[in-house]
Amino acid sequence: MSEALNDDAIRSALESLPAWSVENGKLHRSLTFGGFPEALAFLVRVGVEAEKRGHHPELGNVYDRVTIDLTTHDADGITVKDVELARAIDAIASS
Fold it and tell me: Three-state SS string across 13-68, please?
């Protein structure tokens, strides 16, 4: 089981994740795409990456907008696992 990061560690991680914030105790990011097909394709890629890592983010989609919330439920907070998935999601978003 992963251990939840303390506030200092989360702040430090956010320095390298400028598109992310903490909302309701979760790493949060919102993205906007050119339309529904692009948003859905992005979600599929994120889902495949998350499954490879054994992680299951909270994903939302309304037309061209996607929201992502990351937390590790077993640790009751944000863990290294969430930070690593956020970095992978950023790489997917930039490709």
Answer: HHHCCCCCEEECCEEEEEEECCCHHHHHHHHHHHHHHHHHCCCCCEEEEECCEEEE
